[in-house]
Amino acid sequence: MRLNWVLYTFIWLLLLPSTTQAEPFLLGRVVGITDGDTIVILDENNQQHKIRLAGIDAPEKGQPYGQSSKKSLSDMAFNHLVNADCPKIDRYRRMVCVVWVDGKDINLKQIQIGLAWHYKKYENEQQDSEKAAYAKAENEARTSKIGLWTETEPTPPWEWRKQGKR
What we know:
Blueprint: H1 2-15, E1 25-35, E2 38-43, E3 48-53, E4 56-57, H2 66-77, E5 81-89, E6 95-101, E7 104-105, H3 106-112, E8 117-118, H4 128-144, H5 157-162
Parallel strand pairs: 3-6
Antiparallel strand pairs: 1-2, 1-5, 2-3, 4-8, 5-6, 6-7
Helix pairs in contact: 3-4
């Protein structure tokens, strides 16, 4: 009898909604692009989810390449059906996700075309293969001097924000 009570309690606790964990996977259509690393997905229940692209940090809107980064993300994702792997929710209550359009990781693509940095501050939250791919993509974009890497010393968005700019 005691074992049943423990089992029921455990199952009940598992079913409680969590405020720190996101749904592991999300399917939907991109209905909004906030900037180069934030989108809005509308799921099959017509619920909107604000999504922060995991593992990257794109230039802020007022920063050089900010508008280019947003446009690039819009061209890749707006009005497309997407799959998202969302292991967490950030302090702004956004789901933090790796997002795929037609089987392609758009987070990685933003880095490859030189319109986002690999956000190393959170690389410990990435799988090893993903971390390596993002680091390699940034290095190749830097070496090829594409996108924001045409600048001699582009200011990373985290430094831009420290200066109180948006």
